[in-house]
């Protein structure tokens, strides 16, 4: 069995949804298809939820009506027969009745999660109506019936495996299953989600749970590129990456793949293919256990980074100092991306302001704390890249003249990272594209 995930742009228009139907029925392989919400829907739902949280019910009503109008227009193009249109209308009526009812309910975080789940619930149900009209047999597997996370928001793969297996076994002989990405249930049994971009994560978790033959991630770009094509004019798709290389790229900013989506596939050694819905004939990128040669493969950039520097003369030769620093971040469940140390200071980076005030308050007793916002981590990724002297030379020749805030070298053999002010991000990506790949 294969797992195929299609993102919001892949199902964002009726004709694209029809193209997805053609792709998944091109062969007779058994498969689970994971769908995101239609492009723009999750953002619209976030805005509705935000309006409700601020007590702006009239504004929320306008936003709901606008989204409903979009879906009704969408379905006019998606299905043409009377039976299909009646089914699609009933689905839209049901979900937007819920969104209108919540205008009368006190807002809370649980309700927010229910609101955000509507996009995937809508896209999968409407897709199944479209398949039915086309005469394609398919079974909808509700993700809320099998996808779950524990109290630490970690996926419960053993439970997912049992529940999903039981659901599939109820439909022996069925070749095609449809389910939602992103959404799940939490430890309380409430509707929750795997955070933004979580449909990739869903696909990887499902692939791990069923021991899939392969996991396919279908987007609107032909595989992982060597650089950000939105910033750099000339880029190229990478044929093959190892799990380690892909994980580094995803974590440090490559938008095509959700950072958490690598480890379930890697743990069970399931190949992951990155493919283009708009160009299904394109080779794309395959991610496997083994690397394909050494050297720089790609550059990724992660924005919104906060650099924190703790300076203290007491740090000199003081064992336990770093442990105490790290315990502050552990207490607030805030991951650290980069770290450098000297005799009197430690600099590190985080990518979230969620608990920043509390963290800074608890760091104050250790020394002088300096803060830099709007930083960008630029990572050069490739097998053994940190052990290849020629790449180090090319890297520093290329970035001559760009002010560096931090350098991380040696923490991973597959990654060299530098921290620059966000205003130098584009220039850094461009000069590295020329210096490392010879592309202007």
From TrEMBL:
Name of this chain's protein? Aspartokinase
Named from the GO MF annotations, one term is: aspartate kinase activity
- Pathway(s): Amino-acid biosynthesis; L-lysine biosynthesis via DAP pathway; (S)-tetrahydrodipicolinate from L-aspartate: step 1/4; Amino-acid biosynthesis; L-methionine biosynthesis via de novo pathway; L-homoserine from L-aspartate: step 1/3; Amino-acid biosynthesis; L-threonine biosynthesis; L-threonine from L-aspartate: step 1/5
Per its UniProt record, what InterPro entries does this chain match? AceGlu_kinase-like_sf, ACT-like_dom_sf, ACT_Aspartokinase, Asp/Glu/Uridylate_kinase, Asp_kin_monofn, Asp_kinase, AsparK_Bifunc_asparK/hSer_DH, Aspartate_kinase_CS
Give the UniProt family note.
Belongs to the aspartokinase family.
- A GO CC term? cytosol
Gene source species: Chitinophaga fulva
Q: Does the keyword Transcription apply?
A: no
Query: Which residues does the annotation say bind ATP?
Result: 5-8, 219-220, 230
Name any Gene Ontology BP term.
Answer: threonine biosynthetic process
Q: Which reaction does it catalyse?
A: L-aspartate + ATP = 4-phospho-L-aspartate + ADP
Answer whether the UniProt record assigns the keyword Transferase to this protein.
Answer: yes
Keywords per UniProt:
Amino-acid biosynthesis, ATP-binding, Kinase, Nucleotide-binding, Transferase
Q: Which SUPFAM superfamilies match?
A: ACT-like, Carbamate kinase-like
Which residues are substrate-binding? 42, 120
A Pfam family this chain is assigned to:
AA_kinase
CDD domains tied to this protein: AAK_AK-HSDH-like (cd04243), ACT_AKiii-LysC-EC-like_1 (cd04912)
Top-down, what is the taxonomic lineage of the species of origin?
Bacteria, Pseudomonadati, Bacteroidota, Chitinophagia, Chitinophagales
Q: Where is the Aspartate/glutamate/uridylate kinase domain?
A: 2-276
Please state the Enzyme Commission number of this protein.
2.7.2.4
Q: Specify the Aspartokinase ACT domain's residue ranges.
A: 378-434
């Amino acid at each position: 069995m294969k797992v195929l995930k299609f993102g919001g742009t892949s199902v964002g228009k009726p004709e694209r949804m029809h193209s997805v139907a053609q792709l998944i029925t091109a062969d007779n392989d058994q498969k689970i298809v994971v769908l995101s919400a239609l492009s723009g829907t999750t953002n619209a739902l976030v805005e509705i939820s935000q309006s409700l949280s601020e007590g702006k019910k009239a504004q929320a009503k306008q936003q709901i009506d606008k989204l409903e109008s979009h879906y009704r227009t969408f379905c006019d193009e998606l299905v043409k027969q009377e039976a299909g249109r009646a089914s699609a209308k009933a689905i839209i009526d049901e979900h937007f009745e819920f969104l209108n009812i919540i205008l009368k309910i006190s807002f809370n975080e649980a309700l927010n999660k229910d609101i955000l789940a509507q996009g995937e619930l809508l896209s999968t149900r409407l897709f199944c109506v479209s398949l039915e009209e086309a005469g394609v047999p398919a079974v909808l597997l509700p993700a809320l019936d099998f996808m779950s996370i524990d109290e630490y928001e970690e996926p419960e793969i053993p439970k997912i495996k049992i529940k999903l297996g039981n659901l599939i076994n109820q439909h022996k002989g069925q070749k095609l299953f449809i389910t939602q990405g992103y959404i799940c249930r939490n430890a309380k049994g409430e509707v929750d989600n795997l955070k933004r971009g979580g449909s990739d994560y869903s696909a990887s978790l499902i692939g791990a749970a069923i021991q899939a033959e392969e996991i396919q991630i279908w987007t609107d770009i032909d595989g992982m590129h060597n650089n950000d094509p939105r910033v750099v004019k000339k880029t190229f798709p990478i044929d093959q990456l190892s799990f380690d290389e892909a994980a580094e790229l995803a974590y440090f900013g490559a938008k095509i793949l959700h950072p958490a989506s690598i480890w379930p596939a890697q743990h069970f050694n399931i190949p992951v293919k990155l493919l283009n819905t708009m160009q299904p004939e394109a080779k794309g990128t395959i991610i496997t256990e083994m690397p394909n040669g050494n050297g720089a493969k790609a550059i990724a950039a992660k924005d919104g980074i906060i650099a924190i520097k703790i300076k203290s003369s007491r740090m000199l030769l003081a064992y336990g100092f770093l442990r105490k620093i790290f315990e502050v971040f552990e207490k607030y469940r805030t991951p650290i991306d980069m770290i450098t140390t000297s005799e009197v200071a430690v600099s590190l980076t985080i990518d979230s302001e969620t608990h920043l005030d509390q963290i800074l308050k608890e760091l104050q007793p250790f020394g002088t704390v300096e803060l830099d916002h709007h930083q960008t981590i630029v990572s050069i990724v490739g097998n053994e890249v940190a052990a290849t002297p020629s790449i180090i030379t090319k890297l520093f020749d290329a970035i001559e003249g760009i002010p560096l805030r931090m350098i991380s070298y040696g923490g991973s053999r597959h990654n060299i990272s530098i921290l620059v002010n966000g205003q130098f991000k584009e220039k850094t990506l461009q000069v590295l594209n020329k210096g490392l790949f010879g592309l202007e």
